[in-house]
Protein: FAS1 domain-containing protein
Organism: Sphingobacterium alkalisoli
Amino acid sequence: MFMLFNKYSLCWLLLFLTISSCRKAAFDEFYGRPDWLESAIYSKLQEEGRFSMILKLIDKAGYQETLNQAGYWTFFAPNDDAVKRFLEEQNISDIDAVSADIAEKIVRNALVYNAFKTDRISDYQSSLGWVEGMSFRRRTAYYDGFQKENVKINGVEQELIVAASNRNNMTVSFGTPYYVDGDNNNKYVTYFHSKYAALNNLTASDYTFFHPNVNWTDFNFMGSKVVKANIIAENGIIHEVDAVNLPQLSLDQYIAQNDDYSFFRDSILNPYFVTYQPNAEASKTYEYRTGQAAQVYIKAYDPMLTFSPNNENYLKMEDNDGQMDAYTLFIPKNEVLIPWVRNVLLEHYKALGNVPKTVLADLVNTMLWQNAVWPSQFGLKTNIHEEEATFELSDIADKQMLSNGFFYGTSKMQESNLFSTVYKHVILDPDYSLMLMLLNKEYKRFVTNPNKQYTVFLFSDRLLQQLGYAYNDRINDWSWRDRNNNVIGHSITEPRLQRILYTHIVETPNDELANIGTTSGYIQTGDNVLPGEYIKWSNGNIYASGNEFLGQAVHVVGSAKFGNNGRIYYVDNLLEFSSETVGQALTRIATSNTDVSRFRDYVFNSRLYRAADLTLNGIATGSSYTILMPNNDAIQQAIDDGVLPASHTPGDLADQVKVEQFVQHHILTNVNLAPDGNQDIISAISLLKDANDQSIIVGVANAVNNLRFIDSSNRTIPVVNNTNLYISNRIVLHELNGYLN
């Protein structure tokens, strides 16, 4: 019986093993590793046979397991010849003598997140999908982490544990804006692929400018050529390169280690725009990684700058935007920057410490581009001031392709419009800080335009204070104590000053105000695209409408100064605008020129006139008008022709309508006209409308000192005095030797 039991047991065991074996075979066939699957990166390098030395460095760096297990990597693997050359260049005896630190830098710098064959290496991984041909950089596994740094704080040098900021200080969210804990600030590598070059209009010279000793193939990686691409591995892609590439410095690190730029670094950048901020989260991370408790500081750049030169993450508007762009610095060498600072920046200051920080920030930002500026793109990409790089390639004394951008050391200054146009006389003179503030808010773009010529009248802080203006920088508030000793608040004062300021800016393409002290004339202020109000001058006496109303001329004091787009005059008074009404203007003018008194009388007795506030229906405050005043002889002719009633106080309704229509016909809307030869305006709209409610058009013929108006009967009526004009509150008035019928 026992033997029979054993026999049955053995049969069942054999059956079980057979079934199990079949199931395992089926399982392995379905779930097992396919024979056709490529080896992992580490094993694939072994199989290729040209990478024995980088394999040793991988072992020493502790990355064998990482590269031999599941993952998704691109590895730019230097072959044995490349590693041998590296050892020779670094005077390292053999591969075993390479330190673990150097081995780790080489391996992690060559290891890029995600797997990219050549058909995708030039494409940008946007949040919405692939964007073809827009990528030339990839994030690596390498980062600097925490570093010990000797830092001078309040004049005392201290050794701090420092981490670089990993954001650009552009927005404040979730606490500290310049540092996000958990973001290691990984470095990027730069490559140059034919697809990217073609779609971005770049050539081989854009690459070889940085690497003159390396020939460009269709695919270059840092300072090496890709000699075999797209080696497929189970956990990624291998691209074989012919040189070893160590991690590049960041822009911040390069400046810190290069004394050719020590004046920029030690006298401008670090003292005014770098701070070391203690950070609790970074301190906890440091303790977790090292087991040591210590205060960690974040090296942060002031948000006044375009970007932080130690941030490896580019803008971080999208997670991968560092793939498609980088920063660029154009930094002048000491021998260039020092004399420029002495002769230009410090013309009105005794020391850099006296220069406003906003001005220093403007200066630094002339050197910072928030884009990768390839050598062929100097004239295409602009900095935050909307200026292209004003350099020839021969002006570049030093060029570096760094981890977070391009660095150009220059043998000349960037020819910034801020410091070469007429604007420089405001931005670089502390006596005009209030005018600078007003300019920067509204009209800086006009006076920094090198393609137009301007004359600018400069009014000082002291002059504003003498005239009752005050600015409280603590609360950003303007006020004005007017001539009646009333205190006017910010909401009225600032717009008033902006209007006054625009009257002090005059586009003068032919230097029309060159001899303002010995000539007479008139000119429209502002930019010709956005015309301002008229001013006039006579032998050194300058008037805007308010000055004429008050009888207080403006005079030039001292000599004119120049920029590459015009000249500036210093003045002893403001070019004021007038707040007078139409009624006040007509009263003033008719009092001094009785030849237009009859026109005034008809206006004042028309149904349009509002005696209570001395205004006219149809004339809106703040709009521009030209009022044509037929002189007394012309009025009489209009009466004789039956166009006007004989009395300026008619009782008959039909006669009242005649007066109203006559006045409306002689008021031109939305335009100031003067005999300045402006032939762009050939017609103007009057207030008068026909029976179909269509505005009556008045023709304009404008030659220098010969302004004429043409009515619907094709009669031409000239202005009486072409060498002068009457100006009021956004209104120009002319005496006419005739009338519009």
Observations:
- The CA atoms of residues 538 and 622 lie 27 Å apart.
- Confidence is low (pLDDT under 50) at residues 1-5, 170-174.
- Residues 2-31 form the longest helix (30 residues).
